[in-house]
UniProtKB/TrEMBL annotation:
PROSITE patterns: CYTC (PS51007). Keywords: Electron transport, Heme, Iron, Metal-binding, Transport. It comes from Aerolutibacter ruishenii. This is Cytochrome c553. Residues 20-114 form the Cytochrome c domain. It holds the Pfam family Cytochrom_C. GO terms for molecular function: electron transfer activity; heme binding; iron ion binding. InterPro entries: Cyt_c-like_dom, Cyt_c-like_dom_sf, Cyt_C_IC. Gene3D superfamilies: Cytochrome c-like domain.
Length: 350
């Protein structure tokens, strides 16, 4: 654990101080933004203006909302208007009136309107990989579908995952797993768990979380404990890496468990969310007991993320898992459909 914490760095929730001029940002906010967003970031409930705005402006002084929204996304909204990111069309573009420095200054000032010191910043909410666990706490629904091509009998596996943010650093999660092998089609397992952000470093753009998950099979076999660590870091504007380590330990036979290590590198070539982004993921799985043959099972998962909405809160992941060692399948196709419901309805911003 000490090694993992060293990777994440010191826990720092506030965005790192930069070259932004907060006083200049305050002046711009009061002159340009306060009329619609309120002088302190909250438009009063009795404001006549609220009735004319659909939807009403977000509460910038809410620490959860303020922290989970990445500053670069807000800068794009200020420059190009709300419509550009699937938000309110009543939010005008200010790119023609404000310089790049002005945009950075006003967004940096808006970030001070709420005390977000205990909340992980939204800049650390990286792309969802296919196999690697994410560290950032989510409000998401994810449908995961997998087709496995294997000698003798192919298999479909579908997972419905619901993740709900709780508190400042936590997230509850539940997965319902369905399998169809051509002979039997049934729900095979339900998983419930909790994830908590252990540390983050805004200056280094890194984050570390730990989770505890309990799996409940439907066939009467042993329940299993599946804790994991998840880590992520953004190295530059374009490169993001994430990694996770997960063990599965059956309650009745702990010696029959396994360890899974995964890592992924994403190439983020543009800040616009509705684009196609490539990634390469590697996995290694090993049982606690030696079962003969290749004890460690390796695979590679080249994949793409496709942003479906202008703000990227609905996205599609497609990947092909190719075994790099002796495994009982030829290849696997993965399809994940993600909906971040904290950012609005499924049909918003298409």
């Amino acid at each position: 654990m000490a090694v993992a914490l060293a990777f994440a760095g010191t826990a720092t929730a506030a965005n790192p101080p930069g070259s932004a001029d907060l006083e200049a940002g305050r002046t711009i906010f009061e002159t340009v933004c306060a009329a619609c967003h309120g002088p302190n970031g909250t438009l009063p409930a009795d404001s006549p203006l609220r009735a004319t705005m659909n939807p009403p402006p977000a509460d910038l002084a809410d620490p959860l909302f303020n922290s989970r929204e990445p500053a670069p996304d807000w800068e794009m909204v200020v420059r190009h208007g709300g419509h550009s990111m699937g938000l309110s069309e009543q939010m005008p573009a200010q790119g023609g009136a404000l310089s790049e420095a002005d945009v950075r200054n006003v967004v940096a000032y808006v970030k001070t309107l709420a005390d977000t010191s205990d909340y992980p910043p939204g800049e650390l909410n990286f792309f969802l990989p296919i196999r690697t666990k994410k560290a950032f706490p989510e409000d998401e629904v994810v449908w995961k579908s997998r087709y496995t091509d294997r000698p003798g009998r192919d298999e479909f596996r579908n997972v419905l995952e619901v993740e709900k943010r709780v508190g400042k650093r936590g997230q509850w999660l539940m997965e319902v797993i369905h399998a169809d092998n051509g002979v039997e089609s049934e729900i095979t397992e339900v998983e419930v768990g909790y994830k908590h952000v252990l540390a983050w470093n805004a200056r280094k753009a890194s984050i570390l979380s730990g989770a505890v998950v309990v799996a409940f099979p439907t066939d009467g076999s042993s329940e299993a404990l599946a804790p994991y660590l998840a880590w992520g870091r953004q190295w530059s504007d374009r490169w993001i890496t994430q990694a996770s380590a997960r063990t599965t330990v059956p309650f009745d036979h702990p010696d029959e468990g396994q360890l899974e290590l995964t890592a992924v590198a994403h190439y983020k070539w543009t800040p616009w969310p509705r684009r196609v982004f490539g990634a390469m993921e590697l996995t290694a799985t090993t049982p606690f007991q030696d079962d003969g043959g290749d004890r460690v099972k390796f695979s590679a998962v080249p994949q793409v993320r496709i942003g479906l909405t202008r703000g990227g809160h609905v996205a599609l992941n497609l990947g092909v898992e190719v075994p790099l060692s002796d495994q009982p399948y030829d290849y696997r196709f993965h399809l994940n459909l993600l909906w971040d419901f904290a950012d609005g309805s499924f049909f918003k911003g298409w």
